[in-house]
């Protein structure tokens, strides 16, 4: 199995501190060691091999800005849906999942994972086909959140939505027509929020499986938001409703 690559200081540090299996850390020749002090300290404590390499080596293996450091790691493992749902049954409080219907931009997925971690979302579900996967670009954009938010990869989103309904989840799709203002949506039940493709929105089958639809009002001239921004608003609105200010 080939190594995957994590690049960037925050992403590498998070991978080390969360115990992700790391085979080797690559440091750019000439980078001041003080800037990587925490990474080097953790690497020494965990007996991880650290190798100094020319910048051209990091440029060659990196798909994103590397900030002079990269880690060669075992490929990211996807979470198992059945195990995740079983764990959430024992969780205190109401669970929240995010379903991404055909998202293609790795920066969007990384940003969604970062916000999901911040907003206490329990997991993200993506399809195997026609969708971005977990890559080093996603890891870099997530600023380490990829280590904390379970990502489930499924063969059929429609069937997965049926399974979630059987488990008591209500599924809310993001749509412009016949939809409730997101500030008025209910959040007092297990929820799965569907975010559609950047260009085409939700697919027909996925849209038909939703229990209700939510929209974000637009006061300007552009009639849509970036997928990660829309997802962030939804996730934090759920958080706001379940955790009123002052609690």
From TrEMBL:
Pfam families: SpoU_methylase, SpoU_sub_bind. GO terms for cellular component: cytosol. It comes from the Bacteria. GO terms for molecular function: RNA binding; RNA methyltransferase activity. GO terms for biological process: methylation; RNA processing. InterPro entries: Alpha/beta_knot_MTases, Ribosomal_eL30-like_sf, rRNA_MeTrfase_TrmH, SpoU_MeTrfase, SpoU_subst-bd, tRNA_m1G_MTases_N. Residues 5-79 form the RNA 2-O ribose methyltransferase substrate binding domain. The keyword Nucleus does not apply. The keyword Transferase applies. Keywords: Methyltransferase, Transferase. Belongs to the class IV-like SAM-binding methyltransferase superfamily. RNA methyltransferase TrmH family. This is Putative TrmH family tRNA/rRNA methyltransferase. It comes from Staphylococcus condimenti.
